[in-house]
Amino acid sequence: MRLHVFVLGLMLIGVWLNIVLNSYVQLGSLKINWILIILLVLTFRHSTHLIPFLGILAGLICDALSHGIMGLYAISFFVTLLLARLLNKLFYANTFITVSLAVLSMSVFEGWISISILGMLETEINQSSLMLSTILPLSVLHGLGAPVILLGVIWCEKLFLRNV
Fold first, then answer.
1. What is the pLDDT of residues 37-63, one digit of tens each?
2. Nearest C-alpha neighbor of 136 from the set 155, 110, 117
3. Domain count along the chain
4. Is residue 131 predicted with pLDDT exceeding 60?
5. Tell me, what CATH number does 56's domain have?
């Protein structure tokens, strides 16, 4: 039960970071998706069934914040977190490099799913140029930010999930 409250709390911290930091800090007009990074790191740290379903809620929050198509982030987060949960054994080491590579690859996958769904709904977008100009640089930023998030998650685990 404590793990579920812990994951929900970190997801809400990710929502807060998306609201506050993305308004002020943008690297080349790219907004880092803190919720996705936190949920991916938590998926690789704890293989619980709750995280992919919490990804649906997080995706709906991202959809509401972006004023885009409702359900786009929810579907892509859910599928990405399910795949990350299945691939958890490949990145079992939980070192900074493996988590960084895992977050980078899953972020590319999430972006590809989002662009594919958006391409089905709107035929005028150029998917390949959007992938190269936005998704790949943003995924690299996600991969670079993942070790910092991993340190924060480990610190929060020691603080909140220790034995009572």
1. 999 888 888 878 888 888 898 888 888
2. 110
3. 1
4. yes
5. 1.10.1760
